[in-house]
Design a protein that fits this description.
Largest sheet: 11 strands, mixed
Shape: globular
Bound molecules: uridine 5'-triphosphate
Strand order of the largest sheet: 5-4-1-6-13-8-14-11-10-12-9
Number of strands: 15
CATH topology: Spore Coat Polysaccharide Biosynthesis Protein SpsA, Chain A
Structural class: alpha/beta
Length: 310
């Protein structure tokens, strides 16, 4: 993946929380023993791409929120001297550098979320490490791939936070039929691609949704969000929703939303996961030629099949 410009060296956002403690029920049976965030996209686990985005945005400390049986994630970011030695001996320096860069440049702190009480609760688990600083949140199952030369979404949010001194969230426009799958922001225009948020609502019905601006899982928060999260009560599904606390915060502080240009994949969903593998497979220089040829063949076969059926 291309490296991106970091957020400004003066940016105050140096810490990020990556919640990865969910049960991943949509990926059962795979997630019975393997954390969803460790499922592979081409040649690296989902979480690797998320950590890489944080690193490329200038984040120095990553607080990984983990659940039971998720030590595989912690082990993944640990050093494997034997493996590094082997890669060096085999001359696989590019791969070695990629592994070492993550290991050397990011400080990963693991926190256990004892029960999966929802995303809001997962973020609250990071409070002791974050303290009073602003911080980023990157969902551990959402991948953002910048377009060539384009900005990294987390870096974009960090810069906006620096400029506006307020919490900011990434938003994307979804079709009306999809609003009930997301947290939705009610916004007014601020300037090109940036909005002022009036309120947030979690998974509204198509009829009641205030807009089509959905939250894809990238945030920068002022630490005051923790006060709101502490007041959070579990909803119907027994989960403390992050969106509810964000909504309370909009009543007390300015809150902005920004569009982004990166390609986004919801790798926590089967279709999104398959799309991510196809698109990142096509971006991989070793695979591109053979894989495109294969996809063209599949396309032709499908066209023939559907043609025969119509
Ligand atoms: P999701 O709702 O997509 O994850 O949360 P989930 O609950 O694991 O998914 P399904 O519906 O059962 O398949 C988005 C992110 O927040 C984390 C998840 O690990 C995921 O990366 N999360 C969610 C937590 O860390 N703790 C929670 O209590 C809930």
């Amino acid at each position: 993946m291309a490296q991106n410009e970091k957020n400004s060296p003066m940016s105050k956002v140096k810490k990020a929380i990556i919640p990865a403690a969910g049960l991943g029920t949509r990926f059962l049976p795979a997630t019975k023993t393997v954390p969803k965030e460790m499922l592979t996209i081409v040649d690296a686990p989902i979480i690797f791409y998320v950590v890489e985005e944080a690193l490329n945005a200038g984040i120095e400390d990553i607080i990984l929120i983990q659940g039971r049986g998720k030590s595989a994630i912690e082990d993944f970011f640990d050093t494997s001297y034997e493996l590094e030695d082997k890669l060096a001996k085999d001359g696989k320096f590019q791969l070695l550098e990629r592994l070492k860069r993550i290991r050397d440049m990011v400080n990963i702190i693991s926190i256990r979320q004892k029960q999966p009480l929802g995303l809001g609760h997962a973020v609250l688990c990071g409070q002791t490490i974050i303290g009073n600083s602003p911080f980023a949140v990157l969902l551990g199952d959402e991948i953002m791939v910048p377009n060539s030369g384009g900005p990294n979404t987390t870096a974009q949010l960090c810069r906006l936070h620096e400029e506006l001194n307020s919490s900011v969230v990434a938003v994307m426009e979804v079709p009306p039929s999809d609003v009930s799958k997301y947290g939705i922001a009610d916004v007014v225009p601020y300037r090109d691609g940036v909005f002022k948020v009036q309120s947030f609502v979690e998974k509204p019905s198509k009829e009641l949704s205030p807009s089509r601006w959905a939250l894809p899982g990238r945030y920068v928060f002022e630490s005051k969000i923790f006060e709101e999260l502490k007041k959070g009560k579990p909803g119907a599904l027994g989960e403390i929703q992050l969106t509810d606390s964000m909504n309370s915060l909009t009543q007390k502080q300015n809150f902005y939303a920004s569009t982004f240009s990166a390609q986004r994949f919801d790798a926590g969903d089967k279709f999104g996961y398959l799309r991510a593998n196809v698109e990142l497979g096509l971006m991989n220089s070793e695979l591109r030629k053979e894989f495109s040829k294969y996809l063209i063949e599949v396309g032709q076969r499908l066209q023939k099949e559907t043609g025969n059926h119509s």
